[in-house]
């Protein structure tokens, strides 16, 4: 490995058992403030709907809250689900954010609904039945952000003339082709959709066309991280993550559950296999194991940035996990500079 690797946070404003979103939001801000101190590059929030354990549905509002409580870390969306919104509204919202917090706002865009189809119908209304053109809507956003749009009949105020980086998010090869064709940076959701990760980043790199926004391919891999002082404690803490994903595959979603000593009585062998497949890119362990796992991953994939998401029940344990992860990444980056 011959380059420094940036490291960042993906937060879903997760709601743990016994808590409410009102409890969760200050914890997200506390995490962002610590992440800023620990050298994290960016703090992204994801748009999801109708999920009892995820409180980041009003993503742009929460981005403003986090950006307002921090001073240097980049804050953005991982992502805004573009089919749910008119490009003009997104341009105005992120133009407002970028005006309030200049040079610190990222706009990550996804093409999925961020929820189930019934919820998507409630969000979009009759637009649900319209064919959605993801690349065309991205181009509309770029137009609204451009200074050249000042003579147009429809303008994004605020937003016009602001340099707001656009990222393409994906969990399949389709989004990789879009990001490559448009010359935009690419973030892959390998934390829950690992199947097409390697193929997608290969397609992105092979087909990348330089643009005014980006001259060379840039890949973020989002991964699950559960770090603790020992491998055993990390494995125990990770049972909360496994219970969360079990709820995803069974449709029996719950608030984030406390860790348990064993999953044996919670899932069957088929469920365990399905969860562990989704968690292919989960890095769980003490500092030494974490470092070894990450070095292998980085050498195999060549990604430019690692974005960690950590579903850990206890807030202090989650903070400690992110602190350990930053220490490990700094150690890896020191090796790269030797």
TrEMBL record:
CDD domains: Flavin_utilizing_monoxygenases (cd00347). One of its GO terms (molecular function) is oxidoreductase activity, acting on paired donors, with incorporation or reduction of molecular oxygen. It comes from the Bacteria. Residues 12-305 form the Luciferase-like domain. Pfam families: Bac_luciferase (PF00296). GO terms for cellular component: cytosol. To bacterial alkanal monooxygenase alpha and beta chains. This is Luciferase-like monooxygenase. It comes from Mucilaginibacter pineti.
């Amino acid at each position: 490995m011959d380059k420094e690797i940036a490291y960042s946070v993906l937060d879903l404003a997760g709601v743990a058992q016994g808590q409410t979103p009102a409890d969760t939001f200050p914890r997200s801000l506390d995490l962002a403030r610590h992440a800023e101190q620990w050298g994290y590059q960016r703090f992204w929030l994801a748009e999801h709907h109708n999920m009892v354990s995820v409180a980041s549905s009003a993503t742009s509002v929460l981005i403003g809250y986090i950006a307002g409580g921090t001073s240097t870390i980049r804050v953005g969306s991982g992502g805004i689900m573009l089919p749910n919104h008119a490009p003009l509204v997104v341009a105005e919202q992120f133009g407002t954010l970028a005006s309030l917090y200049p040079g610190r706002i990222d706009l990550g865009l996804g093409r999925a609904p961020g929820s189930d189809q019934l919820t998507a119908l409630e969000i979009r209304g009759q637009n649900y039945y319209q064919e959605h053109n993801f690349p065309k809507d991205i181009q509309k956003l770029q137009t609204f952000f451009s200074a050249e749009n000042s003579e147009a009949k429809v303008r994004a105020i605020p937003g016009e003339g602001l340099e707001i980086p656009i990222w393409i998010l994906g969990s399949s090869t389709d989004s990789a082709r879009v990001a490559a064709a448009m010359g935009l940076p690419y973030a892959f959701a390998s934390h829950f959709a690992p199947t097409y990760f390697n193929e997608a980043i290969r397609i992105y790199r092979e087909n990348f066309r330089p643009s005014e926004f980006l001259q060379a391919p840039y890949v973020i891999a989002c991964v699950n991280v559960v770090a603790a002082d020992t491998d055993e404690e990390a494995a125990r803490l990770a049972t909360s993550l496994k219970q969360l994903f079990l709820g995803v595959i069974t449709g029996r979603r719950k608030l984030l559950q406390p860790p348990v000593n064993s999953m044996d009585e919670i899932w069957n062998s088929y469920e365990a296999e399905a969860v562990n497949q989704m968690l292919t890119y989960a890095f769980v362990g003490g500092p030494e194991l974490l470092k070894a796992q990450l070095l292998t991953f980085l050498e195999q994939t060549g990604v430019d940035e690692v974005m960690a998401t950590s579903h850990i029940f206890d807030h202090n344990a989650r903070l400690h996990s992110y602190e350990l992860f930053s220490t490990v990444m700094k150690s890896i980056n020191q090796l790269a500079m030797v």
